[in-house]
Write a structure and sequence with these properties.
about 650 residues; alpha+beta; eight-stranded mixed sheet; four-stranded antiparallel sheet; 35 strands
Length: about 650
């Protein structure tokens, strides 16, 4: 934390560098109970290393010790499957590790001696990029996983299969050594082998569905030679989302299904004879699977299940499948995200709280104790600088409830602010991506960066957000750019009606699908004084052809069947002549999800409109920024932008250069 004006000039202040440094992204924990690899493992993406993903291992209990990194800094353990990535490693019984290296997308093996060798073929300059994820040690000395062959938009090459890769390295020089286990569907996930090694369970789905719309849980027999046969659908279909299968024993497996309208846990007989919901509740026991390899529950040593569940934020609990009881653990961390890993009495996962930074935790369900293995920020700002969020619910589109988390300002605006002393502060509405994302109340130094400078923040869970059941998600179908916009407008008007904000002194900011909502809102309503779009969608008419395969049909679900005239009327680019406020556009130039053309076209429209705007392109950044310097630059630009719009001058950030016709 840096004092304003220099090291000797006053009280601590949260800087953009602090925010960027705390953007560690933890994910995909594993628990190895015994053997050379014993401990908790996880992936850790580090802004300080330009977004490199490290693998980290640390003991779940006992003396503190140190975290161990099995891979040298030259290795970046990140997969690009679906462009959002996923679990990119697997630990073998001898303590060695398999991982996907971001630069070449090959699976590599790092042995106990630290020697790294490739297991899959080198990329071909003439062929599609081959990617791998969801690695699972399989029978017969192989790793079973999802394989993606991606040529990019316009190439017609986009194929996914389940594949078996030999661990002896023969496939590194002979692509034919890679066996196909399942093919024909557009997408695959979650390969898992029964304890007796005779049955493979996995998920499959096809365009135009996303995995939260409808998936099939399929079973296939495994022959003695490792080939598969007799595939059948056990559960799921076009209107049922089945997720995260896990074998209980050779004859039954658990899975998450939203057949009731909520993602609940089920026990399924492998022969299809019985299916039982373990704890029917209007709660979610999973999150939308944007990334491959997360598991929201696991089997404890005594047969009970450690589960994530909740309505809105997810909590950690223990479910007894025989008694039908669910008991939450008494932990200070009450907002869990992603997946968990379980072995014996140990549960590992990632969680935070309103005053606790996102952390990797190891929890002992037998004692209720927990150990923090890693955290985003080892040194927090003074408590007085951190906002205390509270939930506020307003009525939005069609009268539906819109829950939001309100973060009041904790500090004053700079003395240069052009406003009366008793005037309401400026506010910024945050719009999450997805649109099936969720905004929880966990500690976020990015929000504190603004609230400590006198700017209030409201994080909106608009129509289509996850965490509130399938019906809430599905309400956005065909109404993207309408229902979500109506919701954020309702939240802004509620701030004014409650006397918390003044008209015209509310900004709206969001990324990806959230950026779309920002641009759609400021081209349809005049309630916002400014808009900030991080790699946001501006044109429906071109998105389906420009974006990556995973979401290439998603736009038609969200906005309805392709209709050039209707799309032009709804999309921000088609009605840019109605915009009335300054805009900040931030874009990664290597973004395959929302290509730079989406921001550039809107910047051109703003220039023609003659409105103040800034367009900040970042070479080397993709969909979600990874480099600490770039993340810090974005926050500083955003603060300067708000200062110019709302009439104050931040004293510790460069002035953002804006195109202003005046």
């Amino acid at each position: 934390m840096t004092p304003p004006g220099g090291p000797d000039s006053g009280a601590p202040r949260i800087t953009a560098f602090d925010v960027a440094s705390a953007r560690l992204d933890f994910g995909f924990p594993s628990v190895v109970a015994e053997g050379p690899g014993r401990g908790v493992w996880w992936q850790e993406r580090r802004p300080r290393e330009k977004g490199r993903t490290a693998l980290v291992r640390r003991a779940a209990a006992g003396p503190e010790g140190f975290a161990v990194e099995p891979l040298a800094p030259r290795w970046d353990a990140g997969t690009r499957v679906h462009e959002y990535g996923g679990r990119s490693y697997a630990v073998l019984p001898d303590g060695s590790v398999l991982f996907v290296h971001r630069a070449d997308q090959r699976i590599h093996h790092s042995g106990p001696d630290g020697v790294v060798r490739p297991l899959t073929p080198a990329p071909s300059p003439a062929g599609p990029e081959v990617r791998w994820a969801d690695l699972v040690p399989g029978p017969g000395g192989e790793v079973w996983c999802v394989r993606e062959e991606e040529g990019g938009p316009g190439t017609g090459i986009s194929v996914r299969t389940l594949a078996a890769v030999p661990l002896d390295g023969t496939a590194a020089d002979d692509p034919a050594a890679v066996r196909t286990l399942a093919s024909g569907a557009d997408f695959y996930a979650c390969p898992t082998v029964s304890p007796d090694g005779r049955t493979l369970a996995y998920l499959a789905w096809d365009h135009p569905r996303m995995p939260w719309d409808g998936t099939e849980l399929r079973l296939a027999g495994i022959r003695p030679d490792g080939t598969t046969a007799g595939t059948r659908v056990l559960r799921g279909g076009p209107s049922e989302s089945v997720l995260a299968p896990l074998w209980r024993d050779d004859g039954a497996l658990y899975a998450v299904s939203d057949a009731s309208g909520w993602w609940n846990l089920w026990l399924l007989a492998a022969d299809g004879s019985t299916a039982r919901a373990l704890f029917p509740a209007e709660e979610e026991f999973a999150e939308p699977p944007w990334r491959l390899g997360d598991h929201p529950y696991g089997i404890l040593g005594d047969g009970r299940l450690a589960v994530l569940h909740g309505r809105g934020p997810l909590r950690l609990g223990v479910l007894d499948p025989e008694a039908g009881t669910l008991d939450d653990l008494d932990l200070p961390y009450d907002c869990w995200t992603g997946g968990i890993a379980v072995a014996g009495t140990t549960v590992a996962g990632v969680a935070d709280g309103p005053r606790l930074p996102r952390s990797v935790l190891a929890v002992d369900v037998a004692t209720g104790g927990h150990r923090v293995l890693a955290r985003q920020a080892d040194r927090l700002p003074p408590a007085a600088l951190l906002p205390e969020p509270y939930e506020r619910v307003v009525r939005g589109s069609a009268g539906t409830p819109v829950p939001s988390y309100v973060y009041p300002p904790t500090g004053p605006l700079p003395p240069s602010a052009e406003e009366a002393a008793d005037a309401p502060p400026p506010w910024v509405l945050w719009v999450h991506g997805g649109p099936t994302g969720f905004a929880g109340p966990g500690l976020d130094l990015g929000k504190a960066y603004f609230t400590s400078r006198g700017i209030g923040v409201v994080d909106v869970n608009y129509t289509g957000s996850s965490g509130f059941g399938r019906r809430h998600r599905d309400r956005l179908r065909g109404r993207w750019g309408l229902a979500d916009v109506e919701d954020v407008v309702a939240v802004a008007r509620d701030l004014v009606d409650a006397g918390l904000a003044a008209p015209g002194r509310i900004a709206v900011r969001g990324g990806s699908a959230g950026g779309w909502t920002v641009l759609a809102a400021i081209t349809a309503y005049d309630v916002f004084g400014a808009g900030v779009s991080y790699f946001g969608v501006s044109s429906l008419r071109t998105l389906g052809a420009e974006t990556h395969a995973f979401e290439s049909r998603y736009v038609y679900e969200l906005a309805g069947s392709y209709d050039p005239a209707g799309y032009a009327e709804r999309e921000p680019l088609g009605r840019a002549d109605r915009i009335h406020c300054p805009v900040l556009l931030i874009q990664g130039l290597d973004d395959p999800v929302v290509p730079p053309a989406q921001s550039l076209r809107f910047a051109d429209a703003l220039a023609r409109r003659g409105l103040p705007y800034a367009y900040l392109p970042f070479p080397g950044e993709s969909h979600g920024f990874r480099d600490r310097a770039n993340i810090a630059a974005c926050y500083e630009a955003e603060l300067s932008f708000y200062g110019q719009v709302f009439g104050f001058v931040p004293d510790d950030v460069p002035r953002l250069a804006m195109t202003d016709p005046d």
